[in-house]
Amino acid sequence: MRLIATSEANLGSTLGKAIYNDNGQILLNKGAALTAGIIARLIGFGIDYIYIEDPDTADIISANPVSEELRVAAYNTIQTTFQQLEGNFNVSPAIVLENSAKEFKLLIRSLIKELTGSKELLNLLSDIIIHDNYIFTHSLNVTLYTLAIGLEMKLSERDLEVLGVGAMLHDVGKMNIPHEVLMKPGRLTEDEFKVIQEHAEKGFEILRNVEGLPLLAAHCAFQHHERLDGTGYPRGLKGQEIHLFGRILGVADVFDAVTSNRVYRAAMLPHEGLEVLYAGYGTKYDSHVIDAFKRAVVIYPAGLSVELNNGCSGVVSSQHKGSNGRPVVRILQENGRRVQPYELDLRQHASILITGCDATAMGKNEQ
After folding, report:
1. Which of 328, 280, 322, 276 is nearest to 300 (CA)?
2. Whole-structure pTM value
3. Which end of the chain, N or C, is more open, meaning fewer C-beta atoms within 10 Å of its C-beta?
4. Residue 109: how many CA atoms within 13 Å on its side-chain side?
5. pLDDT tens for residues 297-347?
6. Dihedral (C-alpha) 197, 200, 206, 208: value to the nearest 10 degrees?
């Protein structure tokens, strides 16, 4: 399979992976021929990248260590709980969350188990999903990234559970922000941005009153927008004033925000999202957290077209756990000339570097 930008797909191209909705139902089967209408609908649904079938890369598979069943169960729990909170003035938010606390903890334990037992790196691009609500999806994605970082940093099982619950509920304060502000396609006014910023403290106030949830989970909501240099919100904390969990959440939250399709901009690819984090390496974001993130999460997804500094180009075929910045590349061209495909393991060739990535060419030839 090759990963391409949906907008660059050729008519008649064959879909390489099925497309699902948030409830795990297949909306478009693998093997479907792409028509102009289908391509337009996918773009309208916010699907920026898709996998297509290709003879040179037919055996390349993009996998995710989290099962479809568990992902759907987690998403549905987040959706149900958050919707009960949204605009519900008859029941205390704390009571709603107390009723769901046990289920959240069980989900986190299951996610930890699957991530721990898998040989695959976390690759959320491997699941092509049409989302109905960004907040629900974002909450799950951030949880997965957070747990992957925590596992890489060798946090205890207890800490992972608290961190995971805090991550899953980190944006709960957004549920009573006016929809027209939260989903505004244009630039926010100063007043609107202040309304958005309130979600961190609102989330903390909700979660700290939930019996059965540790106070540290509430601080995950409170601190996920704080930055090492003091430029974050709501309190402008600096350096070690920010709890490790807040620093982990900050990295996971930003990465998912920039690599997800939003109403005001298209999604970045993972390596582009990593560049955003590296722009704040050690200044805005904890360098140790970013390093752990880079080791735990796929940066160059299988199927991504890459160019190398030796004049070769090809498609990423697999990654190495712990050093996925040096993937295995299936070389298809040398100095612009097509060659018999062969595998080049960049981990074995220190002088060969990825100089460019392109998900568009293959189709044609922080709130």
Report:
1. 328
2. 0.91
3. C
4. 7
5. 999 999 999 999 999 999 999 998 878 889 999 999 999 999 999 999 999
6. -150
